[in-house]
Write a structure and sequence with these properties.
A hairpin with a 5-residue loop joins strand 8 (205-208) and strand 9 (214-216). The chain has 309 residues and is α+β, with helices and mostly antiparallel strands. The protein contains seven helices and 14 strands. Helix 1 (13-26) crosses helix 4 (122-147) and helix 2 (39-53) crosses helix 4. Mean pLDDT is 87; it is low at 84-88.
Length: 309
């Protein structure tokens, strides 16, 4: 039995910081309740997302941006595959990113959003959800900063105008023609700083423990699953773990249902230099800490590995 932290964000952060930190250090995952994203907004976003994925294939594919690496708009079924995986994942998705004003110094790193005109309220709903995710993510980062012994606003400047992406995911019901060995999302680690996942109540999400065993992540209705990404793991020199996780195919009746979820990949600013924090580097460590690298260069390096750049 694994003991992933499950905390309420209505608690003073000082009282939950170390419980979250322990869970991120051991499992790379935690569950957060009372995260402040209104249930009405979540329900609205789910309805709008389902309406988009129900559109004809040709309509959806019109929003695929060639050469964009999937950073905005639509990515069709069977495009993304996990690093080193043999088979593509059984999913399609839509990406919403940050809207920057013209002339913003980071605009070259973030393409403008595209919005489907066929679904009423899509832009307004998803823009509101993106903003709500950012607020919740910022609060989790404050708790992580306290756990690391830093001021609670330690991460604020590094994620301000960060290249964060919200993904609307659709895993269709499993058909007869699914490739042998393909699963909804093969084992992978997230590239970003932290991920906030809505819609994980449906069984299927599993993490890989240090002992090499797959364990299901159980999520109360409406809660967020939070996991550490590779960028934060790199910054903390492995003190906080970016854990391999996957979404496995359901069995029986559940295999005939679609699965929808909405992860928010919270990123550092593209020009932020990711370098190991001194307090996370032991003087007598056998292996040297990773070399400093900008968040943008690291992102591009990793996107090439998963067929998105």
């Amino acid at each position: 039995m694994i003991n992933i932290a499950s905390v309420s964000l209505t608690q003073p952060l000082e009282t939950i910081a170390d419980e979250l930190g322990r869970s991120f250090g051991e499992y790379g995952f935690a569950v957060v309740r009372d995260h402040g994203i209104p249930q009405s907004l979540i329900a609205e976003a789910e309805a709008v997302s389902k309406a988009f994925f129900a559109l004809p294939d040709a309509v959806k594919r019109a929003y695929k941006i060639e050469g964009g690496g999937g950073a905005r708009g639509y990515t069709p079924f069977g495009t993304e595959k996990a690093k080193d995986a043999e088979v593509f994942d059984l999913k399609e998705f839509w990406h919403v990113g940050r809207d920057l004003p013209e002339g913003h110094p980071l605009a070259e790193f973030m393409a403008p959003n595209v919005w489907p005109t066929e679904v009423e309220g899509f832009r307004e709903t998803m823009s509101a959800l993106f903003a709500a995710f950012e607020v919740a993510g910022g609060r989790v980062l404050e708790a992580i900063a306290l756990h690391l012994g830093r001021p609670r606003n330690f991460f604020a400047a590094s994620v301000e105008d960060g290249n964060s992406v919200m993904r609307l995911l659709h895993y269709p019901p499993l058909g007869e023609g699914a490739p042998e060995g393909a699963i909804r999302a093969a084992g992978h680690e997230d590239i970003n700083t932290i991920t906030l996942l809505l819609g994980a109540e449906e069984a299927g999400l599993e993490l890989l423990t240090k002992a090499g065993e797959w364990h299901a992540v159980d999520v109360p209705p409406g809660a967020l699953v939070i996991n550490v990404g590779d960028m934060l793991q790199r910054q903390t020199n492995g003190k906080l773990r970016s854990t391999t996780h996957r979404v496995v195919n359901p069995r029986g009746e559940a295999s005939r249902r679609a699965r929808y979820s909405m992860p928010f990949f919270l990123h550092f600013r593209p020009d932020f230099l990711i370098e190991p924090l001194p307090e996370c580097v032991a003087a007598d460590a056998a292996n040297p800490p990773p070399e400093p690298i900008t968040a943008h260069d690291y992102l591009m390096q990793r996107l090439r590995e998963i067929n998105l750049a």
